[in-house]
């Protein structure tokens, strides 16, 4: 299980996102005060997708954080786009080479265009995709 933290719903409290590999979902816990967390809200990533790694970033320049995740079972990278103070829109997926097993993600503005870029570590071939 991998964990990412950030202020998903813009309330100045730390929220937690986890990759639930065996359950094929991303779990979101909102801090509700006094360091207490809400119950997990699951976002389904697909049948046998096996999400293994999550990162938080603002991929679409709106006021909300988005969740990107590596699906090692589906050979995809997925993004749930944040909206409406802590909710996420339907999944957007991006395919990588079949059988490659997306394993880790790194984010940053690698080409200095003011947009968040994603690097995918590919387990099966010991390579990265940009």
Walkthrough of the structure:
- InterPro entries: FG-GAP, Integrin_alpha_N.
- It comes from Rotaria magnacalcarata.
- This is VCBS repeat-containing protein.
- Pfam families: FG-GAP (PF01839), FG-GAP_3 (PF13517).
- With 130 residues, the chain is mainly β.
- The protein has one domain (2-129): YVTN repeat-like/Quinoprotein amine dehydrogenase (Methylamine Dehydrogenase, Chain H, 7 Propeller).
- Helices cover 0% and strands 55% of the residues.
- It has no helices and 13 strands.
- It has strands at residues 2-6, 15-20, 25-29, 31-33, 36-37, 41-44, 51-57, 66-71, 76-83, 87-95, 102-108, 117-122, 127-129.
- The chain has a 4-stranded antiparallel β-sheet, with no helix packed on it. Strands 7-8-9-10 form a 4-stranded antiparallel β-sheet, with no helix packed on it. Strands 11-12-13 form a 3-stranded antiparallel β-sheet, with no helix packed on it.
- Strand 8 (66-71) and strand 9 (76-83) form a beta hairpin.
- The chain is globular.
- The relative contact order is 0.17.
Write the layout of secondary structure elements.
Blueprint lengths: L1 E5 L8 E6 L4 E5 L1 E3 L2 E2 L3 E4 L6 E7 L8 E6 L4 E8 L3 E9 L6 E7 L8 E6 L4 E3 L1
Antiparallel strand pairs: 1-2, 2-3, 3-6, 4-5, 7-8, 8-9, 9-10, 11-12, 12-13
Query: Helix segment count?
Result: 0
User: Would you identify the CATH H-level superfamily?
Assistant: YVTN repeat-like/Quinoprotein amine dehydrogenase
Structural class: mainly beta
Helical percentage: under 10%
CATH architecture annotation name:
7 Propeller
In round numbers, the mean pLDDT is: 91
What portion of residues belong to β-strands?
over 45%
Count the strands?
13
Tally of individual domains: 1
What's the CATH topology label?
Methylamine Dehydrogenase, Chain H
Report the sheet with the most strands, covering strand number, pairing sense and barrel closure: 4 strands, antiparallel
């Amino acid at each position: 299980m991998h964990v990412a933290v950030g202020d998903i719903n813009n309330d100045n409290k730390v929220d937690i996102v986890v990759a639930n590999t065996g359950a094929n979902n991303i779990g979101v816990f909102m801090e509700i005060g006094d360091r207490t967390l809400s119950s997990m809200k699951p976002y389904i990533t697909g049948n046998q997708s096996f999400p293994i790694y999550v990162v938080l970033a603002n991929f679409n320049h709106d006021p909300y954080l988005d969740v990107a995740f590596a699906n090692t079972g589906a050979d995809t990278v997925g993004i749930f786009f944040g909206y409406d103070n802590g909710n996420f829109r339907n999944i957007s997926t991006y395919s990588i080479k079949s059988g490659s097993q997306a394993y880790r993600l790194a984010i940053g503005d690698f080409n200095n265009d003011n947009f968040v870029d994603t690097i995918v570590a590919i387990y099966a071939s010991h390579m990265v995709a940009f």
